[in-house]
Design brief:
The protein is an all-alpha fold. It has one domain. Helices cover 70% and strands 0% of the residues.
């Protein structure tokens, strides 16, 4: 079982890395709100993360039959990438523990453990899913009907004792609405993450071709 303290240290290290890698987005007034949400709130060290994740699954089960196939499918993918991220982090923590690390570690130890976990395809899937989710949720955040739908979801979340989730959803909705076009953000994240992944694995430092974007999200769009 991975050490909870060392895992929290790992997550903090990775959030710091993300903020440094995307400093241009985090410091740009036009993308700051989205950048801070994406690199700090989605992937969080907060004590409420486990509860938020459990609440998210419960809310998904509550609403999945009312959301339409596309939205429900994307939410399911978001749950999957969140669980995948936890598994990948646990593997790194266990590898670091194998080095005798108990609290602090160097970036060199971190990247060595990252590589020795030997899960390139899972890391690639993680990047793909995050970028796909980014575009999808940016799209639905700009639906006129989404503001009303979110009010209902937040009300139900609070009634079910999931206040943190309600606040998280509201913050995400507002963050995605601050950016009109998320294409540059998505392409930058995709490119930089694959360059980094390939560097750590000793492969040519270039992103693999992006999968073509699908058509408009969902079938419940309301103008």
């Amino acid at each position: 079982m991975a050490s909870a303290h060392l895992k929290q240290t790992l997550v903090a290290h990775q959030i710091g890395r993300l903020k440094e890698t995307y400093r241009d987005f985090v410091t740009d007034e036009a993308t700051r709100t989205l950048g801070e949400f994406f690199f700090d709130r989605i992937y969080s060290t907060g004590d409420d993360k486990d509860k938020r994740d459990a609440d998210f699954k419960r809310m998904y089960e509550t609403f999945k039959d009312r959301l339409g196939e596309d939205i429900a499918g994307q939410l399911q993918k978001l749950i999957h990438v969140n669980e995948l991220t936890d598994v990948l982090d646990d593997r790194i923590v266990e590898t670091l523990e194998g080095y005798g690390v108990e609290a602090k570690f160097t970036n060199e130890q971190y990247e060595r453990a990252y590589r020795e976990c030997d899960n390139y395809e899972e890391r690639a899937e993680q990047i793909d899913l995050l970028c796909e989710a980014m575009v999808f949720f940016h799209t639905i955040a700009h639906w006129r009907s989404m503001g009303l739908a979110l009010k209902v979801i937040k009300l139900v979340a609070r009634l079910k004792g999931a206040r943190e989730l309600a606040e998280y959803l509201d913050e995400g909705y507002r963050a995605f609405r601050t950016v009109k076009d998320v294409t540059k953000f998505r392409e930058t994240v995709y490119g930089r993450e694959f360059v980094r992944l390939n560097r750590i694995y000793g492969l040519p430092q270039e992103p693999r071709p992006m999968a073509p974007r699908k058509g408009r999200a969902g079938t419940r769009r309301s103008r």
